[in-house]
Protein 1
Amino acid sequence: MAGTSGRFTTIIKAKISKLLDRAEDPGETLDYSYQKQLELLQNVKKGIAEVVTSKKRLQMQADKLQQSVVKLDTQARQALSAGNEDLARVALERKQLTQTELQSLDSQVQELEAEQQKLIESEQKLRTKIESFRTKKEVVKAQYSAAEARVQISEAATGVGEEMADVGLAMQRALDKTEDMRARANAVEELEAAGTFEDLTALGSGQDDIDRQLAELTSSSQVDDELAKMKAELGSGGSAGQIEEGQA
Amino acid sequence: MIVRIATEGQYELPDGIHDELNQLDNRVVAAVEADDESAYRESFAALLDFIRGRGTVLDDTDLRESDLIVPPPDLTLVEAEAEFTGDGLLPD
């Protein structure tokens, strides 16, 4: 097959084969390789659990941010009703930043959900292959001569080994993604700790700094739009009469 | 011929598709070498679609080894480039 296939596919194949060669110790008995297969299955389960844990953490963060969005919206309305447009603007800036974070968290949760499903499928596939290997091993041992059996079983072991390498790769990629998201979740927690998503009544002395960050992070035109919309809503409610002629 | 899409599964493809597969593979390699993100996405998707479309999923109890292994579908261009410089998914 050499020379006829493109490099993109052959590179990976060569590397996986190399990985298998390295892992394959001729002195190992096939029963021992079956034990190793079972161990990898356990590892995959741990990997899935890790993905689930990270997903739950992100979901909890998302729930918190969702509450902040509602709270900040209410506060913007209250501030505007009381005629404090500056405060309303700050609340809306925070709301927008919080919503942006929330969208990002939601898509990360979805991505982890997909990774979780993929790992569960990989685990089941590997489990089936291992079970099939075990059966084949017993049948071949019973029916074939020692030499024939050795060849047949070692071919099957190579097939299972390839599956193991592939599940290992899938798990590594899933955990890398999980790791990236964990770093991001930590960053969001730091913002939370700095009061960025908090309600305005809790604003402390760090206010100026946070406001400056907000101004950098949020799009002021979007905030303007929302502020205008809110004014119009409140205006049509009758409490602030100055917007009778609409937004034009 | 058995082709594995890494992290996805194995497909059995009919004989005689080798040239087509090869052409698709070459397009991906060209896109990676040109550092062309959109060409990479498009050509890699075409390669994957070809395998999924022309192949039949290998039964989970089948223990045969793959003849070819295609990188994971979520491989980024940066990762693909690293793959060619020997620094990629799997160590050289």
Protein 2
Amino acid sequence: MTWNDVVFMLPEIILSIGASLLLIAPVVGWRARERSAKWAMLILLAITAASVIICSNVVENLPQTAAFSSMFALDGFAIFFKLLFVVAIAMIALLSDDFLRESRYSAWEYYSLLAFALVGMMFMASGIHLASIYIGLELMSLSSYILAGFFKNEEKSTEAAMKYFVLGTVSSAILLYGISLIYGVTGSLNLMTIAKAMSTIITNDALMFGIMLLGAGLCFKIAAVPFHVWTPDVYEGAPTPIAAFLSTASKGAAVAIFARIFYVGLHDFQLDWSNILATISALSMILGNLAAITQDNVKRMLAYSSIGHAGYVLLGILSLNAMGLRGVLIYTLVYVFANLGIWATVLMLRRHTYAGERVDDFDGLHQRAPFWAFAMVIFLLSLGGIPPTAGFIGKYFLFAAAVQSGFGWLAIIAVLMSAVSMFFYFRIVVAMYLKEGHEAEVAITPNLKLVAGVCLAITLLFGILPAPLINQATRSSNWVATRAAVLTHAGR
Amino acid sequence: MDIGILNVVTYLPLLGAAFILFFFTDPKKIRYFATMVAVVDFIVSLFLWKYFDPTVGGDRIFQFRWTRDWIPSLGVKYDFGVDGIALLLIVMTTFMGAIAIWSSFTAIDYRQKEYYVLLLLLQTGMIGTFCALDFFLFYVFWEVMLVPMYFIIGIWGGARKLYAAIKFFLYTLAGSVLMLLSILALYFFNDGGIPFLHITGLGNGYSFSVLQYHEIGHLIPPTLQFWIFLGFFFGFAIKVPMFPFHTWLPDAHTEAPTAGSIILAAVLLKMGTYGFIRFALPILPSATKQLLPFIIGLSIVGIIYGALVTLVQKDMKKLIAYSSVSHLGFVMLGMFALNPMGLKGSVIQMINHGISTGALFLLVGIIYERRHSRMIADYGGLAKQMPMYATLFLIAALSSMGLPALNGFIGEFTILLGVANRNIWWAVFAAIGIVLGAAYLLWLYQRVFWGPLDNPANKNVRDLNRRELGLLVALVAVMVWIGIYPKPIFDLIDKPVEYVVRKVDPGYFNPAQAVRVAESK
């Protein structure tokens, strides 16, 4: 380890120290000063974001694969996702603020756990070695298990945490087993070395089995069918801001490692695994979107829709071309912001009771909060992929990648299911605009306004002027695309 | 700086909508302002016609071009331009838009602000769709139309509005996403091909330019053309709507408020036929010919089936809605005759259907506003009570069934000429459709306006007021104008139709072929 290595990891180091300080704060007598927790968290995140940018400039000309014996890279891909995660966590912190103030639980611990989860996610974004990826994943997962059960006196929250924990650890074990098989065959955990070793292997059952187990573990993390069953229960039971965290940032991190592992490490066996992933993707899109139709609980509906979105993202991964990789980046960003916007609106509706928000609760929202009802429509259109919202750009890339890689049938399923998804997204629109509302209170706090406003701006801006986002995604995916030798179009 | 007259026409309604959103609260002011915006937009579109040069042929038929880079890394351009066909449809859109907005003054009595904002937004979407010469841009406008229409049906519609609105939305969306896949296939064929399917591309780089696709159309291998055509077919046929994809139409038309029905009939349905003429035919000539029997078959079934179903309707609005299925079957039939005469008739019939059916929906809306019933059985003998209304209804009905000296005749006659030139039997079926059309419209007229005035509720119905009279006189004036002097329209679409026929059937204009056609006459 050299000083250069430390620069690569400086943002994570800073963030870990900060997260520990947040944990210590109540012990040294700041417990009562709950308000400062939010600000401490936001300042910490700002410092982290700044250090990501500074460090990435410093290491720009250093060899990317060198840090920590080729375990850690700070390439464009990592920077893109790290900044996305920091912003997403900042928004989730804002969403949590009012929520926590009304509960009896300590904000300091909560933010500290969130910060540790972020450390794990940033690690995942940078990992180019299965060990470092796994460590990051576990750090994120352990923090989220606790966060899901953070309201420990609520029955549903505890139940959600328990389910999440048991299934999550099993999936981690499966993932680990897959990793060990891959290690056994290729002799390395480093993604580039694995790729090199695999290029000389024609066929190998143990390796294929390992890839399948690894894929199964990752599919659990992104909630793809048939590893999705935990999602609705956990989203419903977890505190709403944590459901937002699980469906956006946490999922984004899993997508990042999924893409990195398959693009950099396993691209040589594409013919073998792409059909399996195609099946998973098709099932996720069909089941997620169809099951969402019957849900009356918004949190469960979003959970099923997020299963469908996992299927869409898989299109970008299995197509294994530059278009698909860019699609993964763009879609994740677009999805995260549209979803956070929706969660913010959900939180505006009912914060006093903890139980699930029903679709009926949106009845007549256009009278009570016209602007935010409009924003909600834009978020839903974005998730459905209707132009001129950013969601269309994301879906465009994924569909294009599928067509380009010859998965025409999958693309047909994907587009038809995105039409189906509009059916249940529009149930909320129907409730907001076409039904009369009961005079329930809406609590539009500055925090929620800020989050929903930023999400709205991003969703509309990148929908109408997508060029900057696409260029950024192209630049950011360059390194990974080169490794996967799919650079053919990336330069354009 | 050149802002482009097409941009003015397209975004003027959007600006108006934004203005209403931020500066107006009084419903009265809102509706006058919205009407004013629509009328100004119509006048601007007339200037478009004035400065359009219909004599230019070949590749330069697309005029008022306004091109900028939009997403350079994908080859997406912001590319506006119109030929005679698009121009005609734009003028009709602005005209019918103004009529629709003006017709809503008393019909819409709640949530007026949102209503006019959405109508103007819809207007921008529709005009943009006709202007776009870049596929990506076209797709964006195409989808942008959906949402306002969904709300217009869903908020101000009739009893089953929620069902009708979501059905309309999902049907159209399902079709258009399949169209998106076809666009993508074209896009990759134009660039690097699809290696996994062993399809070699042309290597022209990333581009969504419709004009470029027009040039490469004949290079696309037939199998690929077939699949691409199928995607387009779903997108456009649902919108037209062709049998058997028409089931959303009666629901949407019946439940929509009057203005929504007018816009739906006049413009939204034309999106489908316009899509066929602009994209499917010129880009995919071999698939067009391959699928020709299939489409002709569906069109004929649509004509006859649509007319028969129309005959038995008890609800006036539903009756007119089903008649659209039949009329649009004509438009498709004329188009797929693939000769200049058939295509010209098809384009003119698009305009005619917009004007006539729009007028009929308006008329039904007027009586519904007074009596809150659309059932034919509730009426009878209205001619005595509302003479002006009865007269104008008769003119609209006659124009819809194709009486000479009114617009419908010109379109139907030209279509029949073109179709008969191809295959006399197709023309026979089409003629049966015309007869049935006369039957259901005259029977409707007979039941509503003649006979004894025996329903007491109809005894106090007022005749037209000045606003309604103005609207209908404007529509009737256009009907008579097209019926008597259609030359300006024929001039306008002459070159574009020739352009399309040259793309889809290059042999048509070569001398040997021309002699053969002349002899067969």
Protein 3
Amino acid sequence: MIMPPRLRKFALAAHVTSSVGWIGAVAGYIALDVAAATSRDAQTLRAAYLAMGLIAWYVIVPLALASLLTGLVMSLGTKWGLFRHYWVLISLLLTIVATAVLLVETQTIGYFANIAADPTTSGDDLRSLGSTLVHSVGGTVVLIVILVLNVYKPRGMTRYGWRKQQEQRRALQRSKQDEQRTVSQP
Amino acid sequence: MTDPPTYTDTGDDTYERFDRGSTTGMPRWVKVSATIVGVLALLVVVPMLFSGGAHGPGRHSLGGDTPSASLAEGQVLPEGGRG
């Protein structure tokens, strides 16, 4: 079903907000992740792990799910479709992978936050926890790739998209011919 | 030599830049991207296989491979590992 222009604009605004917000939230998270990876100060580490847990659960995960959902709405509600163009299909796959990795990673982040929240945890224990930097930086790269794909929309139709396009063209031609026949008849 | 077909970008982010007259062949950018992703995946997966599939705690840690033994009991590391 193709969305009317007003609804499409609203869905687009929601999609851009959640997707760009996701990247921004991960950028903030990386700052804390770098602190967790490099700092030797127990207070800094404790604060970083606690904040990482909060940002991951209450900002990044909701934005990721919203981005996935609004992306589905945008593709299914416009003529772009979900499986017709390579850039849409690849964006969808990358978003699903990024969201899945994020959801698994939140278990680790939650573990760090729980340990940091325990006042009996020593500085040495906090220093031994490490960081999630590889996943957070890798995730950001994936998100930027998705963003670039969505802005540039590189050409290329899938077999399915091409077949659908041909069907639509044939249907359009048939309706035009029917129209002409109707007009020419007395 | 003819120039490749170009799109007219309407700027309104609708579906105005549809592929016209495109064929079913996979575009070059998809093939190149798939190759790069495949190589990167191999670079990640092969070392994991040689290291016994370890993708767990401390793998990417700057502070060492295992968390301190003095961590409170019951604070079990999640399966997903960390990175």
Protein 4
Amino acid sequence: MIINMRLSIIVCCTILFFTACKDTFLNEEPVGELTESQIQDSTNVEGLVTSAYSVLNGQFDNASNAYNSPASNWSFGDVVSDDAYKGGGGTGDQNNIHQMEIFNDNSTTKDIERKWLALYEGIRRANEAIKELQTSNDISQHLKDERIAEMHFLRGHFFFELKKIYNRIPWIDASATKPEDYVVANDQYTSDELWDKIAEEFNQASQMLPDEQKDPGRPTRLAARAYMCKVYIFQGKWQKASDLADEVISSNKYHLMNNFRDVFLPENDNGPEIIFAVQHSINDGSPNNYNGSIGDRLAAPGGPYYPQYGFHRPSQDLINAFHTNINGLPVNDHNDITLSDNVDPRLDHTVARPGIPYLDLGIKYDQSWARDLATYGPYSPKKRMVSAKSDHYLKVWPYVNDLNYYVIRYADVLLWKAEAAIQLGDLETGRQFINKIRERAKNSKTVKTLDGSQDAAPYLIDTYNQPFPSKQEAFQALHIERRLEFAQEGHRFFDLVRWGIADQVMNAFIQREQDKRQYLRGAHFEKGKNEFFPIPQSQIDLSQGKIKQNPKYN
Amino acid sequence: MFQLFQKRTPILHVIAFWLFLLMTVSPLYAQQTTVHGTVTDAKTHDILPGVNILVKGSVHGTSTDADGKFELDDVSEQDTLVFSYIGYVTRFIPVNNLTSTISLTPKSVLGQDIVVVGYSEQQKKDLTGSVSIAKMDELKSIPTSSVESMIQGHLAGVNVIDNNAPGAGSAVRIRGFSTIRNNDPLYIIDGVPTTGGISMIDPSDIESLQVLKDAASTSIYGSRAANGVVIITTRKGQSKNLNVDVTAYSGIQEVQNLPDMLNAQEYGDMLWQAMRNDGLTPKSDVYGSGQNPVIPKWLDPKQTIPSDNVDWAQKVFHMAPVQSYNIDFSKGDETSRHFFSLGYFNQDGILRYTNYERVNGRINSDYKLFDRLTIGENLSSSYSWTTGVTNNSALGGAVYNAYKFPSITPVYNINGDFAGNPLNDIENPLGRLYRNKDNRQKRLSVFGNAYADLELPGQIHLKSNLGLNYRTFNVRNFSPRYEELLTQQLESSLNTENSYSYNWIWTNTFNIKQSFKKHQFEGLAGVEAIRNHEENFSASRLGFPTTDPNFRYLSAGNGSDQKNSGSSSEWSLFSLFGKLNYNYADRYLASVTLRRDGSSKLGNNKYGIFPAFSLGWRISQESFFSSSFVDDLKLRFTWGQNGNQDIPPYSTLTSYTSNPYYSNYALEGQQNAVNAGFTQTRNGNPDLKWETTTQTGVGLDATLLSQKVNLSVDYYFKKTKGLLVERPLSPTIGGTNQTIWDNVGSMENRGLEFLVGYNSNLQNEFNYNISLNGSVNRNKLNSLPGDIDYIGLPGSVLHSTNFDQEVSRTDVGQPIASFYGYVADGLFQNNQEIQNHASQSGAQPGDIRFKDINNDGVIDSNDRTFIGSPLPDFSLGLNLGAHYKNWDMSVFVNSNFGNQIYDLTRYYLDFFDLSAYNKSSRTLNAWTPENTNTSVPRLSLNDNNNNIRPSSYYVSDASYVRLKNVQIGYTIPQFSRYLGGRSKLRVYLQAHNLLTITGYNGLDPAVGLQNYSSDNRNLDIGVDRGIYPPSRTFTLGLNLTL
């Protein structure tokens, strides 16, 4: 039939038309994104390097809960130690961290997964940058080496954090490309092998890093040496640690600031005492100010100037640790102190006590600032808080500041030196370096009453003027000095673990405090288990059986 | 010649194509006599102007004039005349049977509906697919701006999950959830496909709304139709005389069934009880430290906040007005039809300071040229303002915050400012709503299409349709400075957000109808190109000098801390499709469709082919079948495949982007600036392909007892393979992109739907109708790859929405978004019971006993299991309608059975772990050694048993029966006497959501999604965190026709 023939012609033509214009129409070209070839351009590859630094502060996605993966380890290092309580609006507020605090956390606890993700994100970004730097033809060899060295430093940092928190960790390097390459066993290396690999990262970094960095955010050669020292401290390789500490100290590039409080002013956060810091920035054009101290945003103490998030609350035991005797030396008897007791002046720079003026706000901290007083007591954080009157503090949500978080400050190196010396039997060198720290504390400005006329509390501190009678006592002095100097900086728990005393200290602490902090009733630190956090369940589930859980977690 | 075609630009192709088509046809016929008559409505006997009359098989014809009269010459005695008129059943009358009055039956008479199916129309009797038809006339008066909400419960197998907030979204789920990510149907408005909601459409403009449910009907829409298709046709001019319709209603809405919180004294008492339970000496900053809690006179040291006793849940709600006005003008004749409408809708939310307001206009017109060419357009535009708040969220949700806010706090302090509360960090709920009141989201939408339809002899239609969907969005969110006791914002801030998107669709179709003897064929072939572009931008500043709304522009803020961000995306789709319908003697029906889609969102697997077929057997037409009881009986069978390609654009590509949240760093030590970094955008999967849904169905349609009873039953089985899932990768890959889009696993839905209706004789003075629809759907995730345990909400959203509680999982063998946790097995009454139970650390008498699911003697995370499903076992809708003289009445009852709610409001309201927040009055009945016959665990601040953990304690049955709508109307007789012409006035009274019967003791048993726009929306269903409740609404309305 004629009509049918015509019909078929129509259909053919129609199909012809259809097929003629489709080729470019369905092309997939991303808008606002760089392709894999564009990223190797010299300026763009610098962007990959920057991005690896970016995740240092624990912010790795759009979510507002970087406090679950904080750079400062406030939850992983302080809350689970004898220095701090979780705080917040009751035990149900961030119940996940509550479970950590009472050593009832498990592999599904949210922070345990978020922290892991943040740290491995850092490793991935460092690896990505290394890969692209190595193949980029567009960047000078010198700069390429330097940037790769920075990436080794960062990778070393992220692995160090993973090692101290999770212990048994899979090692991912720059050879990983496809998703399958990331499924790696966590018992491939022994603990010592892992420490050695981490030390090697810093060793490689130190070979190519410059002595001076124009950008304070980048590590110097000495920063890599200092970090390597820290690795040996954790590994208990005292001689190596001591040598590296000497190298850093003898360079004379760093010194303690005169005033203890000044160290924690944003104005000084790349100052002479800072060896490596996580750089924070606010009001920098980022939509939610996630480049600020976002991991610590829940520490806001309440009161008339701050929102009452009220987390990271100093423990009574920490306050008591600052008690000094008539010689200005630590009493360390765990008895509750009052406002009339002699205390180390660092106390009122470190924590907010009712009746003591708060920073430069011109008012006294009051226990009514404290959130859920009945559960978490009257004290609030202070050391790393920025004055609400300062431009360095963001007065709107998320109420962060631009004070950097110090990964390593010079005081750390001095006390590592002291610790290594003591461990090597040189108690006098140990005393000398502990005293350097106490000296500075002694000569620092103290917190004054509101009218500025006198000290806000009876401050008394002195150096150890007698040789330590025994290694035991030297170590005891070192132990307490680290606690006082670095309180609320996220190190305490990891110190207790590496000293092998976490179980004694924590169970004694729980025993002492459970009448005040009743939620601690029933809490128990299990030796051989709670030194490390569990491997996240999602990691085990997605590892095709290659990942083993840490002992005693199920 | 084909070579030549290929080298030309697309425009030239089009011209050549059309020219070619014109050449292929030529007219060949001859005529003799003249006929005339009058056309009337079969029911009302009104005259019908503008009725189209054609000689069958030709383009020769005319239409009726203003008096319903027509005259047509050059017809032969053997011809058949075709009388067609929108809204009426087309009649075919042989010339030799013609009477002087020809009556047309309105389509709404059952069984005769014209159904708009994919790219064409069909009579309902010839349908082989499964299609639900909404009677929009009856639904338009429902006091909501949303068309989706109107059809809720009326169509079997179509579930509408409503957000309830004014102007907010609803989710339409057709035959269950067929996938994890996007389960929204495809909407076709006047032939133009669109996704992402249809809030721009004014319900009054809708002529018909049909839902295509089975694969055979939807398959022609291919890759976007796996979730069903909603086809909306808007109104056209019908009458030769100018027709004016005015509809208006106005009403009042109220909240009902508010949960009961503790008052100021009771809260203190319970706090005291909790502390005593913990062995503490009760004391509180606010309630003192006495034997009994004491309400102080003042709540702050400055004595500005007097103590009070406020029912905050009550306080944030109010009676709120809703009103809607619509006027339309229409006119139509044989050469042109016009429809013009204007509408205004304004709804204040029952939650104070929430509002939705919309104005919209529409012009639909078409023109017939040279007898054969119809060109036309449908163009609508709407502008809306929404003031909304966060709801159903554990953090920041307006309703949940009202529950949690201490009763002791007054609304205002003595200075007249909103009072702060002395116990917790929650902002004064009313203050928060008030401060948000001017933050209006503005949306402009232009939606429309222009088309040309060329009719050629032999019932051939060539149609070209160009559609456009353009939307802009703007909001300026301002937060003023405020200071309350424990919460404050010391600087004002403004965030401005702008976005726009456009979407163009060009569709060309070729349609032919042929018949010889008893064989009827209808063929359709077409091509469609779609492109989508969207772009957004937002910026903010701090420190505004005043809160005056006139200053809420970025430049007024402090310039030193400006922030901004922006992004864009594009995708396109190119498709070929064809359909063939075959009808033998009105007895055997068959239909085959095929579509091939190409998507820019996919890389190595761009193209997908989606076939379908359906068969129908009209048993009642068989000679062996004769029954006076059955008028029509049809058996249907359908099979087909559909696709889903709804993944974010570029999911197949690995690329790099500078993300302001996590890519930048202050490398240079700057404190107010950062260096931009580049982070990998995603893990691209170049092998990603379509998700395919295969659906098989059988159905039976019957009309009985002289069309008084109609019945329709459908069974379907739907299986989705290669589910598009953002699957997790080993976390060692890092947290920024820990996932990859992949085709994994499968999901199935099987179900049964029925609709049964009874209409009494329409001619009687008293007539009535009853219809009952019901559906059962069973959803199940069939499989996941071995390395994926389950699919859950990403950790990044759990905090704000769920307060870090993981309460639902989507897992193999379970329905989507099933509740997951421990099984709460009553309370321990004494130490003996604790000792006899599996080891549950920290348990004391009065604590919840959790079940040892794995029987290993220890209660730990391995004892979690599935504890409920948010999906109903079955749903029923019952419609009753009646007319008596000038009175009419309708009643609609809607119900769901067998689903559960996870009541996350209990997290704050039942446990003193979060002691600073107000509690539910349930806690008055908490376990104590004296009060043991209770299900509420003992109160404790130091919940060592972790009673608060996710468990079946939170899960309640959510079955309900709701008297959804009752309407009584009265048509004023002989109204035309007053206004002349055909004018008619009907007034009505309506009550909406009048009564709900349920066992759930939260605010409302119909809890929807947490979020109606997020990609994860289907993973979080039926979790109550203080939803925006549906309102009980009473309206008075009128329909006036001039």
